[in-house]
Structures are given as structure tokens and as C-alpha cells.
């Protein structure tokens, strides 16, 4: 079958730049410094056992249709009530993924004549939802509240501000307290994607918004289950009227087959385990602080790195603005027994290529030390030259 020449040229261009993607699976036995399974729930035997037990005494229900037709269940609605209660909100609405939740919210809620401002480092799913919106939208500089404040002056209609509480590539935190203050003063609607902070912060893992006691000041939160929760799906939580609006106007919700029972059970049981995982959450933050103590010379070896990840974050970045050298570095570290993955443009901006290093509750200080030694050992001395 003939493939359009334009597609072939685009593939070849990426190949020439050294950023052509392909699917790979980690070799068995590698130490995980790559996955988003921060708390180890994805491989938890305790969670697996609880899921098996609950499915065993729950009436079988597969994926039969969208929730507005045949796909809704009492189980799904009870789960949404539990999620809302856990996160200190009035209501929650389940989506099939974090990507679908962001597309579902931003394509529906900001209306024509409204204005939406979003952090330039926001996830692709958020930007995709914004692209589908009829509202006018503008990025602001990453974590720069002053830049946002200047741009808000030209806003019209209802004004939304969209950020991530913990950014997936840089691993730094949004200045939520400052953002809440600005939004309260200006009458703006703050939307926070908690994909990477859900399960990790707060007394029971409720997320960073709850940890800072800002539930009443944030209009909507996107809580994703595919990271620390070790399962799949997402929910938008906020006012009851927001839930009602989304199930009436959000196309990714309306026209999607409902999550099957197995997914719903996994979400419920993962949430019920969260209060028992305070030790695991503390361990991740301790390893993060330890990693930071081992890499104090970041500004020397990575002049392109910009603001570094804050202590306590499970996500760290080792930047190398040369795709070929970065791929070679990753391969050498993988050959030494550590699963690390390079991230290339366009996932990050050209010149910001990096190893995205993820710390988990099941990693050890010794493993972190060995990883840092390998990073220093194999990083080229002159990293300013691009391929």
C-alpha cells in the first residue's frame, strides 16, 4: 500500500534529527527510574488481591455503551461520590484517561468570548483541549505569575487560568498560593491538573491543592489515575453544576464507551489504599532530596536547564541539548542496569532534551547514588554542541 510522500518526508526528517520515536520495552531486571508508578501500586500484590476480591462479588458489567445510554452503573456513581469526598469537592465525573479529561474540560467549559491563559509548560493534552475551545487563549511564561498578571489585563468574558500542580517534564511545582491570590482578586477561574501530584501529597494523598487547603479556591481539578494510582482513567472534580455541565456538553464524555467494571474497581481499591501509604510518600520525597544533594552542580553541566526541579518532587531532569549524545547516554546507563528514558522534541522544546528521571518508593538510596555516578561519568564534558 502506497504511503503519502509527505508522511515519509516527515518521518525521514525526524530520523535525520535523531528524534524518531519507536516502541520499546525495558529489558527485564533493570532498576526502574522511568515509570510514573511513584508508589509501586501498579505492581502491588495487595492492590491486585483487593481488586480480585471485589470483582468476585460484584455483578459483572462490561463496556456496553456510553454512560448516557447503556454504560452507566450505580458502581460508577458511587465511585464518583467517593472521589469527590476524598478530594474535598462537591462532585466528580469520570473520564477514560487524563487526556480525555483535559480535552473534555477545555473543549467545553471556556466559551466563545471567554479568555483562557495557560502555563507554557502545560501537558499536551491540556493544550489539545484548549485548541478545541472557541475561547481565545494565550500562554504565559512558565510559573511566572507576574507575566500572567500583565496578560490578564486584556482578557474578556469569563477568564480561566490553567496550570499543572506538578509539571511532568521539569518536575517543579506551580506557585499555587500566588495563583489563587491573583485569581481571587481578579475573579478568575483556576483549573489545576493534578496528574502527577494525585496520591503523592496531602495527609492521605489527596493532591497538592488539598495539601495546601485550597479546595475552595480552585474551580476545577483534573485527577488522573495512571501515575501514582497505578491504574487508568481520570476524573474532573469541582462544583456539582460543573459535573452537570460536562455530562451535557463534554463530547469526550458523551461519545465515549464507559470504563468497564475492572477499571472502576481498580480505581476504588487504589484510593482505599492511599491512606496506608504515608511511608511510601515520605520515602519518595527523601529520595528526591537525596538526589538533589548529589547533583549540586546542575547549572555547570546543563546551561540549558533553566529552573530546576524542587526538592520533594519524584520527577528530575538531566538535560543534554544534543539528541545523539542524549540517546547514547541513555543506552550506556541502560546497559549498566538502570531503566532511564530520553525525552526529545517535540515533547520538550528543542534544546531542552533530557533524561526524565523518576524516583519511586521502591528505589533505594544506593540505587540513586549509583545512577548519579553513572550520569556524571557518561555525560560528555562539552554538552553545548548540538548534533
Number of strands: 12
Class of the largest domain, according to the CATH hierarchy? Alpha Beta
Structural class: alpha/beta
**H/E element string?**
HEHHEHEHEHEHEHEEHHHHHEHEEEH
Average pLDDT, all residues: 91
Strand order of the largest sheet: 2-8-7-6-5-3-4
The CATH architecture of the largest domain can be given as 3-Layer(aba) Sandwich
Distance between the termini: 34 Å
Task: Give an overview in words.
- The protein is α/β, with parallel strands linked by helices and 387 residues long.
- The chain folds into two domains: 29-44 and 277-378, Aspartate Aminotransferase, domain 1, CATH 3.90.1150; 59-275, Aspartate Aminotransferase, domain 2 (3-Layer(aba) Sandwich), CATH 3.40.640.
- Helix content is 40%, strand content 14%.
- The protein contains 15 helices and twelve strands.
- It has helices at residues 5-17, 45-56, 74-87, 98-106, 124-131, 145-152, 176-186, 208-211, 240-249, 251-254, 261-273, 278-294, 298-301, 323-335, 365-378, and strands spanning 31-32, 91-95, 115-119, 136-140, 159-164, 189-193, 220-224, 234-238, 315-319, 338-339, 341-343, 354-358.
- A seven-stranded mixed beta sheet has the order 2-8-7-6-5-3-4, with helices on both faces.
- α5 (124-131) links the parallel β3 (115-119) and β4.
- α2 (45-56) crosses α11, α3 packs parallel to α11 (261-273) and α4 runs parallel beside α5 (124-131).
- The chain is globular and about 55 Å long.
- Mean pLDDT is 91; it is low at 299-309.
